[in-house]
Amino acid sequence: MHRMKRTATLGIAGVCALAGAAAGITSSSAATKATAKASVKRHSTQAGVPGDFGGPGGPGGHGMAVHSVEAVLNKAGTAFITETEDSGTLTSVDTSAGTVTIKEGTSTVTYATPTITIPSGATVTLDGKTSSLEKLVSGEHISIRSSSEGTTVFATDSSFTPTGHGPGGGGPGGWGGQPPAA
Question: Which residue range is the domain that position 25 belongs to?
Answer without folding.
Answer: 1-37
